[in-house]
UniProtKB/TrEMBL annotation:
Domain PUA: 129-216
Protein name: Translation machinery-associated protein 20
InterPro entries assigned to the protein according to its UniProt record, in alphabetical order: MCT-1/Tma20, Pre-PUA, PUA, PUA-like_sf, Uncharacterised_CHP00451
Protein localization: Cytoplasm
GO cellular component: cytosol
Biological process, per Gene Ontology: formation of translation preinitiation complex; nuclear-transcribed mRNA catabolic process, nonsense-mediated decay; ribosome biogenesis
Function description: Involved in translation.
Length: 226
């Protein structure tokens, strides 16, 4: 409960700085059910096109460079003789969805690397860095709210701890990470960090991720693109 209140309080603080006043009920609702999350609304798509083999090779190379942990599984994710399709999304705009046999496996906006779909991460859960949110943050994040620092730095959250775990490393702003919820094994969100983990620990507040793909969102609901 305390964590949920901290999460709400931090979001209200941000809305105050934007509006100069306490949020109205309507603004408060929009804050937690906002378009912060990239796929909060149902996703609509437009034209589909086959990805050229040279582009497909470049995508695979970019995936390995961005997520070294995916390298051992690359031929399972995108088999050598497979053919990707690129699907232009209308909502959200300027996002490309990559499908294999009509199933979404990656998405990419103009300023991000290709990001694995949650179903890919469920199959290969240790392939990209993972952070953890506490129980109090779960309902906000899965309603499409921005991921806030208080949900990660509390006792129930989880961030890298290189001082006590030599295998850990601090994560930088701009890195793509997976998010697990306290007490759950399944990854519930994936997205790009707006703030590095060292900064999160120092500040203890602020938006950590605001364009994630999360369980139950519009992208999750697309099982195939026919």
């Amino acid at each position: 409960m305390a964590s949920a209140l901290a999460y709400m309080s931090e979001s209200i603080r941000i809305s105050r700085s934007d509006t100069g006043d306490l949020p109205s009920n309507r603004l408060f609702q929009s804050l937690f059910l906002s378009l912060f999350a990239m796929f909060k609304k149902d996703v609509s798509h437009g034209a589909r096109s086959k990805v050229k083999s040279s582009v497909q090779r470049a995508i695979k190379q970019k995936l390995v460079e961005t997520y070294p942990g995916l390298a051992p599984y690359m031929d399972e994710i995108i088999p050598k003789k497979a053919s990707l399709e690129a699907v232009k999304l209308h909502i959200p705009d300027r996002v490309t969805l990559y499908t294999l046999d009509s199933r979404p496996i990656l998405f990419q906006s103009l300023d991000t690397p290709p990001i694995p779909h949650l179903r890919v991460l469920h199959a290969f859960p240790d392939a990209i860095p993972i952070v953890g949110i506490d129980r109090g943050a779960i309902r906000f994040v899965l309603s499409g709210a921005a991921l806030m620092a208080p949900g990660l730095i509390s006792a129930g959250g989880r961030l890298p701890d290189p001082a006590n775990n030599p295998g850990d490393r601090e994560l930088e702003a701009g890195e793509v990470v997976a998010v697990k919820a306290e007490g759950k094994e399944e990854i519930c969100m994936v997205g790009r960090l707006k703030m590095g983990t060292e900064e999160m620990k120092k500040k203890g507040k602020g938006v950590v991720m605001d364009e994630g793909h999360y369980l139950g969102d519009g992208l999750w609901k697309i099982e195939s693109v026919g």
